[in-house]
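dude i think i finally got it to work??
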Amino acid sequence: MAEGISYLVLLGIAMPLKYWAGMPMAVRVVGSLHGLLFVVFCAALLWVLVAARWPFFRVVGIFVASFIPFLPLWLDRKFKDWGAE
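look at this
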């Protein structure tokens, strides 16, 4: 959830601030935070693939979905269902 929100903040707030308001520091700060959260997200996906034995194509689908704005927020509900399995 945090990674998805940071992506939306990066695209919806920091990028316009950089290009329309001349504030490149916004992208540097939010982009760094998003990068850290994305690495944590990828590590978590690797963990559920190996330790929790989630299906490979589910993990790949979640990884691809993380690049589409708003989709990770929608998938959060599915994560809870899959976690209960």
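Residues 45 and 60 are 9 Å apart (CA to CA).
im so relieved honestly
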